[in-house]
Amino acid sequence: MLYIRHAEQIVTVSGGSAAPRVGAELSHLNVIECGGVVLEGERIAFVGPHAEAEAYVQSLEFDRRQELHILDATGKTVIPGLVDPHTHLVFAGSRESELELRLQGATYMDILNAGGGILRTTEQTRQATEQELKEAAMIRLNRFLEHGVTTVEAKSGYGLCTADELKQLRVARALHTEHPIELVSTFMGAHAIPWEYKASPESYVQLLIEEMIPAVAEQQLAEFCDVFCEKGVFTPEQSRAILLAGLRHGLKPKIHADEILNTAGAELASEVGAISAEHLLCTSSRGIEAMAAAGVIAVLLPGTAFYLMARPADARGMIDGGVPVALSTDCNPGSSPTTSLPLIMNLACLTMKMAPAEALTACTINAAHAIGRADRIGSIEVGKQADLVILDAPSYTFMSYHYGVNLTSTVIKKGVPVVLGGKRIRSKATVGEVGEVGEDSWPE
Ligand code: IZC
Ligand code: ZN
């Protein structure tokens, strides 16, 4: 057992597991000022004010008290482990030259149309072995973990042929078992039209529908199916056909919508019953209304808008219009090469005028809803999985106040400390090993 004792603040984000939070609910964090959390195995056994936590611990039977390890959190803040619901985690190579091209005036789409961008990463990913892809993604996952992220969604989409899409998804599955971070996989073969289908994009759509989606579903390599619905990539009609094919095979729809231009992607997400629509930089008020009516979660990526020097999404219009909002890094080698979800929270506040409380909800319980995991993660509640972060700060507001600074002190995944003093301690720790890191003594 692990007792996180005497925290300045515990931000539980509790009471939102049934449905994603909308409107004013995004600000309801249910903060306990001065409290404790007790973890038993992989679960949260108790959370409450300090005096009650002490009493709970005192009430434990002698044997269980003997095996209690203590992490003193005086002056610190406990938050749920952060959840990143949109990443392109598994890829080979890098695209640093595109930054310079864009600074000279080229656009993201210019670069893609010239065979760079996603197609460049596809070339490199096709050439990489599973082991090489795994090692590269492992480094990114380690950085995510050091920033307090304990669950990550990972999309394929740099294979763009059956064999290499399956390869990417197998790497994600292997990482899920080998790394403390949990991965949730999305099939995104519809990320770009590969060069060999440039003259016949419809044939690629057919390949997606008839071969790739059935193979992914049969091998149970993904839960979701995503499409880059954008002018010059997949049309709304193609996107609809792909997402409906995914649905027929049990893959829930997600959609990259209205990122560069408004193609009514938000409306399409609502029509097909997508769990989430992502980006939404150019979504119209009609799109916002459609998403609110259908309960589609808006996964906003202010880091991508920042990095592409574009106007960010209308987060306020969405929150005030009743759309549940989540946030993500969009970690990818072209438009958002970052693993810092706390930086995304800063950007959400400073470029989209989200309040610090809204940003935290958007990176915890609403992000968990966006990947269908809110029953298990995203808040600090008894019975939920013990995924927690201890910040080196007296209040959660410091996460949005400091920027470009990592305040993550301790990360606990499934009840096991995996980051201590800001450093990863081991990739697969066991609870039995915790003694060496805590006070390991019983408070009288
Ligand atoms: O590799 O450019 N927008 N897909 C859609 C991306 C960005 C990732 C990339
Ligand atoms: Zn993306």
Structural account:
With 444 residues, the chain is α/β, with parallel strands linked by helices. Helix content is 37%, strand content 21%. It has 17 helices and 17 strands. It has helices at 50-58, 62-66, 96-103, 108-113, 118-127, 130-146, 162-178, 201-218, 236-248, 265-272, 285-294, 302-307, 315-320, 341-352, 356-362, 365-370, 397-401, and strands at residues 2-11, 31-40, 43-49, 69-72, 77-80, 82-84, 149-155, 182-190, 224-229, 252-257, 276-279, 297-300, 325-327, 388-391, 408-413, 416-420, 423-424. The strands form two sheets. Strands 1, 2, 3, 4, 5, 14, 15, 16 and 17 form a nine-stranded mixed β-sheet that branches. It has an eight-stranded parallel β-sheet with strand order 6-7-8-9-10-11-12-13. Helix 7 links the parallel strand 7 and strand 8 (182-190). Helix 8 (201-218) packs parallel to helix 9 (236-248). The longest helix is centred in the middle third of the chain and has 18 residues, at 201-218. It is globular, with a radius of gyration of 22 Å. The chain starts with a strand and ends in a 20-residue tail after the last strand. The model is unreliable at 427-444 (pLDDT under 50). 2H-imidazol-4-ylacetic acid binds at residues 88, 117-118, 121, 228, 256, 259, 332-335.
